[in-house]
Amino acid sequence: QVQLVESGGGLVQAGGSLRLSCAASGRTFSSYAMGWFRQAPGKEREFVALIGWSGRTTAYADSVKGRFTISRVNAKNTVYLQMNSLKPEDTAVYYCAARPSGQTEYDYWGQGTQVTVSS
Predict the structure, then answer these.
(1) CA distances from 28 to 32, 104, 111, 112 (A)
(2) d(CA 42, CA 65)
(3) Does pLDDT of 67 surpass 80?
(4) What are residue 93's DSSP bridge partners?
(5) Section 16-20 average pLDDT
């Protein structure tokens, strides 16, 4: 069982930056690939970024590539999403999720943190 708690969301002006954190419980955190997703009002949840268990593998949605960076510190059971050059269209609730390495489905989800980017 893995519990995930996101933090770091807030209100920021366009062009600004935020860093989201996702703290995980459990001793097996390092065996999970981690992902960030977001859901804007009236829209479906969409993939933002993922990172493999070791941190060597990352992937990003085209809409955030070059602006967002995902990272993890396994010793702290934490995954981060550094968001730079934020745009109003980045406004959404951001969720972190965990999936066992080698699996395509995410088994665990956090409660989400709100990010609002003003123009």
Answers:
(1) 7, 18, 20, 21
(2) 23
(3) yes
(4) 39, 114
(5) 98
In 3D space, the residue among 52, 56, 50, 54 whose CA is nearest the CA of residue 37 turns out to be 50
In sign, the C-alpha dihedral spanning 45, 50, 53, 55 is negative
And the tokens for 91?
Answer: 């406004």
Please give the span between the terminal C-alpha atoms of the chain, in angstroms, as a whole number. Answer: 40
Q: Specify whether the CB–CB gap between 68 and 59 falls below 8 A.
A: no
Q: Buried b vs exposed e over 25-43: b needs ≥16 C-beta within 10 Å?
A: eeeebeebbbbbbbeeeee
Which pLDDT value is given to residue 87? 98
Q: Residue 61 in 3-state DSSP?
A: coil
HEC readout, 80-118: EEEECCCCHHHCEEEEEEEEECCCCCCCEECCCEEEEEE
Tell me which amino acid residue 114 is: Q
Question: pLDDT for 73-116, tens place per residue?
Answer: 999 999 999 999 999 999 999 999 999 878 889 999 999 999 99
